Each structure stands twice: as C-alpha cells, then as structure tokens.
Predict the structure.
Amino acid sequence: MGAPAWAEEEAGGVERDEVVQEAGAPVCSGTPQPRLQSSQGREVVHEEIAGPQRHGNRRVRLNVAARADLEWWRRFGLHWNGTAMMRSVVAAEEPQVELWTDASGSWGCSAIWGTRWFQLSWERLPAAGQRNIMPKELLPIVMATAVWGHLWRGKTVLFHCDNMAVVATLRSGSCREPQAMHLRRCLAFMEATGEFVLLAEHVRGVDNVAAD
C-alpha cells in the first residue's frame, strides 16, 4: 500500500520510507468522508461502507475500490484516538500554511514552503517521468505533505498549483486517473491522521515562479 511503486525510491533528499510510511493509503475510486463516531471507545463506521453485502439471495462481490475503502478505514482506525474527529473546513478560515508546487513533463517537480524546498528530477525517478502530467503535478504535493505534514497539526494548509485538474481533484477528493487517484488517497490519509485540512488554489503558470 502507500505511494505507487514509481514513488517508492529516494527522491531529491526525501527518503523512500518517509513517503511510504506517511502516505500509507490504498488506491480507491474516491476519498472516504469522515463518518466516524465514538461509542464507548469503539469505532463506528458508516453503513454505506460497512453495510450488508447481500441483496436478497444474491451475493455481492466487492470490487477493488470497495475493498480499498474498507482498508482505508481499517488503517485510519489504527491511528484514531476514539474522540478526535477530522477537521472540517470553515469557508472564511485563513490558511496558516501556504505552499507552491510545480511539475514539468520532462524535467521534474518541486515544492516550496517558506525557506523549505525540494526539487526532484525525473532522471532519479524514471517511472514517474513516464506518467502523464496529472500524477506528476500531484507527486510534489504528496511528498511535501509526507515530509512536512507533522508540522501542520491543527492547521489549514493551502497549496498553490498551476494545474486546474489537480486543483479540482484536491477539492473534490476524486478523479478518474488511477495513479492520480492513488496519490489523492495518500493525501486524504495523511490529512486525516495528521489532523490538518488541505485546500487548493489555482495559480497561473506565469505567476508560479516560486516553485519554478
């Protein structure tokens, strides 16, 4: 589980284990929404995930996405303290953390947060270089969250990205591109366990000079 195989190598000073251990979420068709409640210290999962799997006398076989949903919740349950809930976004809330990320189809990707930054060349991650642009644009966001996310507990974090499809995926929690969806699920897991909120804002490519 965790980041895809092409992201499980050393990348620009970010060690593989840091990304894999922090982004330990499975692939699925959509990001699970917070439906947990505390019941005498026990975990309660919403019926739409843990409901009956029979329709009359017909047995229903769970597909990969449904199994991944259950695995996502199982992993989250290992981290859940029984009382703390995932934070909700307040529309008027100002972000306490802002980052800029960018990716090139042929060169690599980068992210910057204040004085912290990293760059990764696709030469060091050849498999990533063969993907389309959407997973490439999401990868620095996942890497930044895996490396710096432990500093964001209780905060609202805003990513500035010049790819509108990636911004839409971060806002909706879902997309149809399999590798991009995998990365989005990794983000959802880190967001839930790290108790911070991720927001996304589109910025024009010509204005995204910090991450360039």
User: Anything to note?
Assistant: Residues 178-194 form the longest helix (17 residues). Strands lie at 37-39, 42-44, 54-55, 58-59, 97-103, 108-113, 116-121, 156-161, 197-202. The radius of gyration is 18 Å. The CA atoms of residues 153 and 191 lie 9 Å apart.
